[in-house]
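Marked as duplicate of an earlier ticket. Keeping the data here for the record.
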Amino acid sequence: MTTARKPRRLSLSRSLSILLALAAIGAAGVVFEEKRQASKEARDVAKLKRKIDAEREKISELNAEWSMLDQPARLQKIVELHPDVLTLDVMKTEQIGTIDDVPWPPPPPAPKEGEHDAEAAPSVPVATAPASAAPAIASQPAAAPAAAIDAPMPLGDTAVPSVEPVGDEVDETTFSPEVDR
């Protein structure tokens, strides 16, 4: 008796095991690649941090060198050694100006007859003062008299009451006009 051999079929559990093994190998490959990429990025970050530290060190050294080179006594010696090249003089008190020396800005040009266009008018008002106002500013005393300091503040339209809201009630006087409601 000869028996014919039947073809073997893979069972469901065996094929599932093979698929899971292949998926595990693929996942291991992906994890390995991600780990390799992460370690490369970590090396790059460490290299950049070392470069940043080196640059900060250079900046610190350059600041120290600049402080040394910028010392007034050292600069004075250099000026004295090279008077023909460095013609620097000591500053005189006459070179310092006062508030009277500052010119007032010119008044804005007046609009021409018949022009009422918004573009013709300056968008920002320019403060002008008569020429006699500058000496009045300079002649004011430096300190205010004691009576003016102790005087009570006027309570006109500028006073804002400070009322705290109670519960869900909101008093509109606590909001500034800039706040959107």
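See parent ticket for discussion. Confidence is low (pLDDT under 50) at residues 132-150, 156-162, 173-177.
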